[in-house]
Amino acid sequence: MNRFMDTQESDAQSIYSYILKKLNSWNLAYIHLIEPRILGGMEIKDHKFTTSVATIFRKDYKGLIIIAGGYTRETAMEIVEKGDADLVAFGRHFISNPDLPFRLQHSYPLNPYNRKTFYVRGPEGYTDYPFYSQSKL
Amino acid sequence: MNQRTDEYGQTIENKSKLLFMILEEVTKVFPSNCVGIRFSPWTT
């Protein structure tokens, strides 16, 4: 379970399992889980966790689960249909697609994101990604 | 890695104690159904 030696609890699963079971009685708005495929903004291509973190903890937590981390339209629908998550959050695709929900709804292609402009000042990579109709012109 | 030897380390209950202390306080101000928690179980 330790991807990076000593950087996480060796018994992370038991700790989170314990926490999530306890949280059932708190009637919280949601629990938001992050997939390990994002680490410090870098996408993990070869991560060994093939099972979604939502799938692992769904058995412990019965409330609303939001999952995020490297999802596509297809995998997002899949995890919700399976019932392992209730909502899927998008981060990077939202940066490059101001109309992301519209695009996902209609299965339109997404603007690729440019990681180099993620954390810089100015409008480039921040407010200049085109809407779907604009990008078709 | 939590290597504490006080009441915030060693056992699962202790390691998760701070979270529930915070939750206890936060839900005194906001109703619990307005509070969400974000976890990265495999990354931190």
Keywords:
heterodimer, A: 137 residues, alpha/beta, 33% helix, B: 44 residues, mainly alpha, 39% helix, 9% strand, flat
Order of strands, main sheet of chain A, comes to 1-4-5
The greatest inter-chain interface is formed by: A-B, 35 and 23 residues
Strand content bin of chain B: 5-15%
Number of helices of chain B: 2
Low-pLDDT windows of residues of chain A: 1-7
Please indicate the count of domains of chain A. 2
Written description of the protein model:
The complex is a heterodimer of chains A (137) and B (44). The N terminus of chain A is likely disordered. In chain A, the strands form 2 sheets. Chain A has a 3-stranded parallel beta sheet. Chain A has a two-stranded antiparallel ribbon with strand order 2-3. With 137 residues, chain A is of the alpha/beta class. Chain A has 2 domains: 89 residues, no CATH class; 47 residues, no CATH class. Chain A is built from 6 helices and 5 strands. Helices cover 33% and strands 12% of the residues of chain A. Chain B is mostly helical and 44 residues long. Chain B has a domain of 29 residues. Chain B has 2 helices and 1 strand, in the order ααβ. The longest helix of chain B has 13 residues. Chains A and B meet through helix 1, strand 1, strand 2 and helix 2 of A and helix 1, helix 2 and strand 1 of B.
In short:
The complex is a heterodimer of chains A (137) and B (44). Chain A has 137 residues and is of the alpha/beta class.
What order do the helices and strands come in, and which of them pair?
The complex is a heterodimer of chains A (137) and B (44).
Chain A: H1 12-23, E1 30-34, E2 38-39, E3 42-43, H2 53-58, E4 65-68, H3 73-82, E5 87-89, H4 92-96, H5 100-106, H6 132-136
Parallel strand pairs in A: 1-4, 4-5
Antiparallel strand pairs in A: 2-3
Chain B: H1 12-15, H2 17-29, E1 36-39
